[in-house]
Amino acid sequence: MDEEGQVIKIRLSDPEARVIEIKLSNSEVTLLREHYLAQQKSIECLVKRKKSQRARYSYGIIFLLTNLIAWAVRDYGQIVFSDLHYVKACGIEGRSCYQKMGVLRVSLGCFMFFFIMLLATFKTSKLYEGGNLRHSEWWALKFLIWFISLVTSLFVPSSFIQLYGEVARVGAGVFLILQLISVIEFITWWNTYWTPEERKKQRCFLGLFMSTLFYIASMCGIGVMYSLYALSASCSLNIFFITWTAILLLVMMAMSLYSKVNRGLLSSGIMASYIVFLCWSAIRSEPASEKCGAQRQGNGHDDWTSILGFLIAICSIVMATFSTGIDSKTFQFRKNEPEVKDDIPYQYGFFHLVFSLGAMYFAMLFISWNLSSPTTKWSMDVGWASTWVKIVNEWFAATIYLWKLISPIVKQGRVDGKK
User: Fold this and answer.
1) Residue 401: per-residue pLDDT
2) In the chain, N or C: fewer CB atoms in 10 Å?
3) Are 225 and 276 within one domain?
């Protein structure tokens, strides 16, 4: 299609056909040009959006590789780092570059990489901005930066690594809070999706069936924990953990059915299953030396169950970080702003922030939230520190969920009081 003044020439696909000339006014030519440019821009936005969506999986792979490197450094690092005695920061026989210190070094390298990406993409909001290019492309350069970050962490003094370990505890706690809020928002959305509406009776029945299923699973979980981890009165701490979890379950169910709340049983059922899982996970983290702990029957060998559980735990870390990172809309203050075609599909700065905190989180899991005591091979998140972190996380989750249920009533009471 050619433009000559106000004449548009169109050549048909048939080679024997003539060239047809159509006379258009200047305004019509301008509108035609704008329509063509708009279509071209829309196609470019679609391509950039697909690249952005694919990029997040690449970052997830980088994060997974870093987790595997941290595990290898912790359990088998002495084979490699014993030869790095010439690196002053690694200390005698490289002891400061493997085991727990090695995990913290790998975590620091991962943190530095994602923090660099955070700075490079901060405040990016449009697909045509340079931040989108830095987020979605230049992968050879990014892998080089990631590799340099990991190597640089080997030369960081041990005193600074110890300080980073203390900071990582706080960062891991922030990550748990973000993850918890994301989970609760997802549960709320799912409950809204299955809320009974007119012409959607099938959803109502299916939602009721799923809520019943979640509550049955939760009660079965409570019973299994009593039978496995509270065998005698001497297991008083486990009895307290399980009993308090059952009480929280009943309180959430009662609040959901309260007439002024009336939120249905599905969300509370899902939340009940979640806190039961957290309680079970906390008890499973108790040290092997405890007679009521879940690890008491372990033989300490690398059997296939411990290896499989360890690999599943690593995949869970990656999935938790990934899902929280792309859930930036949950943490936006203005959630009702209309989305434009050239808007980025998720907030890049928040995405890299979550992965930076995730680097601190996986470090704490690998060292069981303890900077001093040793760890065993193929183990993760085992020890009293890990147990109490999970229990507090469970109680905090129940508190946030209950507040989310009663906050509309409290706000309405304040409004009525002012009137």
Assistant:
1) 86
2) C
3) yes
